[in-house]
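Dock adenosine-5'-diphosphate; give full complex structure.
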Amino acid sequence: PRPGGLPRHVVARVAPLGSRLVLALVEDRTRERRVEEVRRDFVANVSHELKTPVGAVRILAEAVQDAADDPEAVHHFASRMLTESERLARLVGQIIELSRLQGDEPLEHPTPVSIDEVVAAAVDGTQLAAAAKDIAVLAEGEAGLKVVGSEKQVGAAVANLVANAVAYSEPTSRVVVTRRRVGDDVEISVIDRGIGIPEAEVERIFERFYRVDPARHRSTGGTGLGLSIVKHVAATHGGDVRVWSVEGQGSTFTLTLPVQPERHTAPAQHSLAP
Ligand code: ADP
């Protein structure tokens, strides 16, 4: 039931309205119920996922208390606590991001998004992680491409793909980010020669919280939410994301987004310059 009111389907049945409006209300109710189901599911998953790092932080804090007179042990437990709390912070941040995206609401103020800038920022953002593994991250392809939407969202999607490519590659390998125009779309591909994804798992990696072999990947500090964020960003922008992968050889993730239509192009103001 809606807060303080009749359930919407009852309103629809009794309302003395034209049939089209009643139908719209019933459809609205069906959609509402679906959204509610997704939300309930999500909350259940979130509570489950949060319990692990929260529990770990508590146990580690107790260990610090117990080891008060052993500075080395205190240092060890405290640094593990830091790792867990960083993971917790990342998890909470991604949960908030994803729940915003799951509304599937149309973008509020779509603006032109420069793919050059988005790619450069994503490459920049992984420099530290890449350098730690001596991995080279290279940006290639067509310059000057633009899509329309949210720079923050498209930026987060590309950053997630590049971060994954680095996280799931062996040291000293190479990650390439390319972009090109194909018809009315912009294709951004992130290519790695990393561990790849087993064929049976490829279908599932875009699900919320799904991780291939979580025990083995624990060291990457991942949350299993990155790719579902990418999928939602693609959907809200009218695009999609695909993956091609061979286990043990590498993966290519391709994010496809509609190119900025010509009519949105700003007038050539530079022609006024001296
Ligand atoms: P995570 O935070 O665990 O990286 P994602 O949703 O981004 O979560 O990815 C889900 C899972 O898909 C990862 O845990 C990993 O098993 C797999 N995966 C994602 N990207 C790659 C990649 N480039 N190479 C190999 N496996 C990947």
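Observed: The two ends are 65 Å apart (CA to CA).
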